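Let's study my pick:
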Amino acid sequence: MPDTTDLPPLEERLKGFSGFLERLSKEYGMTTLELVHKLPATGTTITSGEAMLDVLKDVSEWGDILFITEAREIITGTSTAMPQVFNHDGYFHFFGTNGFGGHIKEDACKHIAFINRSFQKRPSRSIHFYDSDGEPMFKIFVSRELSGEMKEDQIARWESLAARFQ
């Protein structure tokens, strides 16, 4: 457990925080999901991981998204369309024609968070999928236009999907 006595109160740090939630949570000795629960309610919706298949099926209709995975020493991302997802033998399977695909254990996701906040000083909308340890398995971000602005149609899809779980 890190020593947090010299850190400012978390509520103060979260005001205007635009960095990586995972790093901040480690500074304060909590899981990323515990930190997400402390984000402003107006920008965050958290639901059960049981909605994972429904969420991924909806996202597969959005067009290109940014799919991010993170481990301790590496962050990887791909900008691609989310393939259609189906359930078979205890896994969610997804295979795209562009080489993007994989398998996710059906019961691995325990919570899903829809997060509307500034990230790296730019507005963002994302969906985070959390495991049983309260750490992200992967994240899906609303894609951006060449101008850097988020795609309006995806913002509308994100807002509609998040509203289903409020």
